[in-house]
Amino acid sequence: MMTSTTTPALGPLVGAYGLVGHEERLLLVRDRDASAFRLPGGRVQPGESVEDALRRSLREQTDVDLAYLDFCATVELRDHTSPNGPALYELALLFDVTLADPEAARSSEHELRWFTEADLHQIELRPAVIAERLRSDALTVEHPWWPHHS
């Protein structure tokens, strides 16, 4: 039986995620059946551009269009589909995002919440590598590449 340490990684997958800010707060999303918050966004679908994927994902998750986006960073992620399943390898492209109407953001499928920088230290936030970078204020254009280290 192969374990997750010997199973080859699937991928690379590409994800587009938004650092959605408004009034010194960051918008995070939590699936209804999950305990952890995450950045809004999702995986790029076949035939879809990165920008289109981000616009689609944020529209689906917030019911609001994007007014502005700008590339911020790339983070390499490794995750597991199950305890003994294959590792997923994802390149997460992060963008600074402004919503057209941030106050109108809502979702019937996800919990949306705005967090201050101090709040980020008090909540469960995934994936861990992005949580660490957000909490240390390390996701900047000066440091746009965060490779995965085994």
From TrEMBL:
<dbReference type="InterPro" id="IPR015797">
    <property type="entry name" value="NUDIX_hydrolase-like_dom_sf"/>
</dbReference>
<dbReference type="GO" id="GO:0016787">
    <property type="term" value="F:hydrolase activity"/>
</dbReference>
<dbReference type="InterPro" id="IPR000086">
    <property type="entry name" value="NUDIX_hydrolase_dom"/>
</dbReference>
<protein>
    <submittedName>
        <fullName>Uncharacterized protein</fullName>
    </submittedName>
</protein>
<dbReference type="Pfam" id="PF00293">
    <property type="entry name" value="NUDIX"/>
</dbReference>
<keyword id="KW-0378">Hydrolase</keyword>
